[in-house]
Amino acid sequence: MSSTKILIIEDEQDMIDLLTLHLRKAGFALSTATDGASGLRCAREELPALIVLDLMLPKMPGLEICRLLKTDITTRQIPVIMLTAKAEEIDRIVGLEFGADDYVTKPFSPRELVLRINAILRRGKGEVAEEKKLSFGQITVDPARHHVAVGGKSVRLTSVEFKLLSMLMQRQGRVQARDRLLNEVWGYESVIDTRTVDTHVRRLRKKLGKASAAIETVRGFGYRIRES
Asked: N or C terminus of the chain: which is more exposed, having fewer CB within 10 Å?
């Protein structure tokens, strides 16, 4: 794992030291940047396996860095975990809308962050495209092309949203518990925060528009694609 490089973009030295200690202990190679502009430059030059990105940065905010990375064909596949002191739901939603793969709210457990990083990297290595197209109502998912359409019109989803929708459609009619989705979509071996699932489903529904009625909430349990 020593060849797996993590880029930390963070302006607080104490936080950099904490992250460096635990990530190196976990076997990762590290690169750091202390402002947004240099962080974006490092990401483009080094193409790390994953980026840990603070939201509040000098010279360029973390959300803007995330947006630029996710709209650039050379960097959009790099997973991004956002570090934020903002705990409000709207901040999480905005971060995910900009393409972040996950978020961690300060203060956080370094062990939890390492777990999340390993899960995201494991998920990336383990993704194998299913050739069979999936469809329900107006929604069509083509796993081989990583393409989603609603009524024939392309819908742009993040990698997590795509995997979440694909899994629900593959199991049409069967309720998928939040903790199971965390395990199979995010790769988490233990329940960390099921609100992660709810936030992604909310974003997914918004992007699907009227077709989002296909995703049914089963109160107190999880989600499923309707049977008919």
From this structure: C
